[in-house]
Structure prediction request, 116 residues.
Amino acid sequence: MLTDEARAAANASSWSVFRASGNALFASLDPVLRGMPVDRWPDVAALNDAAQRRDQLVVNANGEPIRFVPQEGRPARFEDAYEPRIFLRGEVMVRESNWHDLFNALVWMTFPRSKA
Prediction:
């Protein structure tokens, strides 16, 4: 079984915006992918930059603007858990070099109403 560090290294080393950009399967993500770094895994800053480049502000069901923040351990309070944090503060927690979280962010930016 891979350690978290080994998994992150494997994921980071295999990232390429070119893998998805231009692929018909990911065509709807192209506008967001075009702004992603090509030489490194997209970090929180790159995701927030991509969200800011959209024509329309990405907001949650509560009207809060969405922004991506690093995930930091297990929350002690209910309002700091994943879903409440998105609803209450518009903060979507993202794990570093994580495919699931990257695609979640891409969906937030491409189909925000499906997430809100």
User: Anything to note?
Assistant: The chain has one domain: 4-115.
